[in-house]
Design goal:
Order of helices and strands: HHHH
Shape: globular
Largest sheet: none
Helix content: 55-70%
Strand content: under 5%
Number of strands: 0
């Protein structure tokens, strides 16, 4: 993960920080695809995390 974080732009780091401020239970539901990502949080960063979690 650290090498990938090193390549993040400032906007990507900001998006990640925003996502990490969300409640853990919500993130778990979205990352495991038990619940769809709400429109308000549908961001490329979260979609990338969902894809990475599914591997």
């Amino acid at each position: 993960m650290a090498p990938r974080l090193a390549g993040f732009s400032e906007a990507e780091v900001s998006a990640l920080e925003t996502l990490l401020d969300l409640p853990d239970p919500d993130l778990a539901e979205w990352l495991t695809r038990r619940q769809p990502i709400p429109v308000a949080h549908d961001h490329p960063m979260l979609r990338a995390m969902v894809e990475a979690a599914g591997k």
